[in-house]
Amino acid sequence: MFKHIYFYMPRRTTVILEDDVYERLVQESIRRYGTVRAISKVLNEILREKLSARDELLQLIFSEKIAEIDLEEFNEFRKELSRRLEER
What is the DSSP string of 23-86? Predict the structure, then answer.
């Protein structure tokens, strides 16, 4: 019957940036688009990338694991890992 179509309208907000962050956004805006006027676009892209990466990491951490090891194998792995870290 009726189809629901969802779309998002851009929203305006004020974000207070520290000088170094602002400078990096300006540089990235110029690098990507050749203009400083694309800072909002660059900021949205970076936030989207970082938030997506975080979601993927959390999904990986909490997903069902493929490998199965017994307690003895785990303890052996842990000892080997500790040995390698101590050698550093």
Answer: HHHHHHHHHHHSSGGGHHHHHHHHHHHHHHHHHHHHHHHHSPPS----HHHHHHHHHHHHHHHH
